[in-house]
Specification:
Blueprint (H helix, E strand, L loop, with lengths): L26 H15 L4 H11 L13 H17 L7 E3 L1 H9 L1 E5 L2 E6 L2 E7 L4 H4 L7 E4 L20 E7 L2 E7 L2 E4 L5 E6 L2 E5 L10 H11 L4 E5 L8 H8 L9 E6 L11 E2 L6 H10 L2 E5 L10 E6 L6 H12 L4 E4 L7 E7 L8 E10 L15 E2 L4 H5 L4 H6 L2
Parallel strand pairs: 10-11, 11-15, 13-14, 15-16, 16-19
Antiparallel strand pairs: 1-18, 2-8, 3-4, 4-5, 5-6, 6-7, 9-10, 12-14, 12-18, 17-18
Helix pairs in contact: 1-2, 1-3, 7-9
Length: about 425
């Protein structure tokens, strides 16, 4: 697992933002309203949530009248709700502050030094250096071993728990047999997570898909990329660290590798939605968010079908996944494994966070506060449910410490075999 400032990109943006918000914070009203919203919308259904709902309504802050500062009371309420939501142990269920909401949807970190660090055998190595970051400016290289962080607490487990991408201060690294000292700072950083194609060998392409955010999968841009992919006999689709994104984006990507028209990529089932007597819906290309939500409300299932007419790659395909591959990236991996018997899905088991989260504004809590509630579950054509299970690779891969010290990604090396 690559250690970074991970922000889970959910599948469906909140429906609307209200024009009016509460000017004062009402603890009891906020508590009852948020608990009720989850109780009504969560895909598990009211029967399974009855005991949780009863407990959720019990205030933890008994003396809220003692708080003269509404901001402090609001912060305590958010922390209380985070704990109560965590008790349900489902993905895509989270309450967000305005800063967290903006970070998730903008793709910009308020503090990121550009280091992506990989633990191997209890030691920590630089695995990636993001461009335009302070790590890049200070000359960090892939394969550098981090051996000292004077400005961070080093406990009995070494650097376990350190958020390397947020670290500011001095760093001591080992490069080969030479110890070097750098200073680094976590600054606002816009990370470009658009799909990137590069050549590993004359006949092998490497397609890094770091995110399935909607803006990275504009139809014309994606088709141009597929045209470039088609010049390679073999392509590696790298989903390591891809935390998800948009359903339409992943269907567009899959449509370029699973080539048969009228092919289904699974379905979204909303247990608390329409009657089972209503017809199923099909996710159409370039559907707006409001139209997508209307499908969820009006249909018991939304089927993910291949977008007809999409240019398709027919060469050898390898997909790389890891424990930070989550949400719709897991749909990509599971569908390739299910539909393309000659394709290879290698790496380590994915996170198992595959529910459809719908974001709602919490105007009664304060401006910019939101909540994501999982309202639908994904099932593959074979009935496989990713949530809580993840996608298991056909072949498990392990990183080589020796090779990484020389800047070599052993997973990528194996995939070129």
């Amino acid at each position: 697992m690559i250690l970074a400032n991970l922000v889970l990109v959910f599948s469906f943006k909140l429906i609307s933002r209200p024009d009016t918000v509460a000017t004062t914070f009402d603890y009891k009203k906020s508590l009852s309203t948020v608990c009720l919203l989850v109780y009504q919308k969560h895909y598990l259904g009211r029967e399974k949530l009855a005991a949780w709902y009863k407990d959720c309504l019990k205030p933890r802050l008994k003396d809220q009248h003692l708080f003269s500062d509404a901001t402090n009371l609001r912060d305590l309420f958010v922390e209380e709700m985070k704990g109560k939501l965590a008790a349900l142990n489902t993905s895509h269920l989270e309450i967000y502050t305005p800063q967290e909401d903006e970070l998730t949807w903008s793709g910009q970190s308020s503090g990121d030094n550009g280091l992506r660090v990989l633990p191997i055998n209890g030691r920590f190595f630089v695995f990636k250096v993001l461009p335009d970051s302070t790590a890049a400016e200070n000359g960090f290289r892939v394969g550098d071993q981090i051996v000292g962080l004077p400005n961070a607490f080093e406990g009995a487990m070494g650097f376990e728990g350190v958020e390397f991408s947020k670290y500011s201060g001095s760093i001591e690294i080992l490069r080969g047999t030479t110890k070097l000292h750098f200073k680094i700072e976590a600054l606002p950083l816009k990370v470009d997570s658009s799909p990137a194609l590069s050549q590993l060998k004359p006949d092998i392409g490497w397609l890094q898909i770091s995110s399935f955010r909607k803006e990275y999968f504009i139809k014309s841009d994606w088709q141009s990329l597929v045209d470039s992919i088609n010049k390679y006999q073999s392509v590696i689709v790298d989903l390591r660290g891809n935390l998800g994104g948009d359903f339409g984006a992943v269907v567009r990507a899959l449509s370029s590798f699973v080539c048969a028209d009228l092919e289904s990529f699974g379905e979204l089932v909303k247990p608390n939605g329409a009657s089972t007597s209503d017809p199923d819906a099909i996710l159409e290309e370039d559907l707006s968010e409001d139209a997508f939500y209307s499908l969820l409300v009006g249909s018991p299932k939304v089927v993910l079908m291949r977008f007809a007419g999409t240019p398709c790659y027919k060469g050898r395909l390898t997909v790389l996944i890891d424990g930070d591959s989550a949400s719709v990236s897991e749909i990509f991996a599971a569908t390739v494994a299910e539909k393309l018997p000659d394709a290879r899905v290698w790496g380590t088991r994915t996170r198992g966070d595959m529910l459809l989260g719908v974001w709602y504004p919490l105007e009664y809590v304060g401006r910019g506060y939101t909540i994501s509630i999982p309202e639908a579950v994904y099932r593959s054509d074979d009935g496989f449910q990713i949530e809580g299970r993840g996608v298991t690779p056909e072949r498990e891969l392990f990183y080589s410490e020796e090779k990484l010290r020389h800047g070599i990604d052993s997973w990528l090396e194996a995939a070129t075999e």
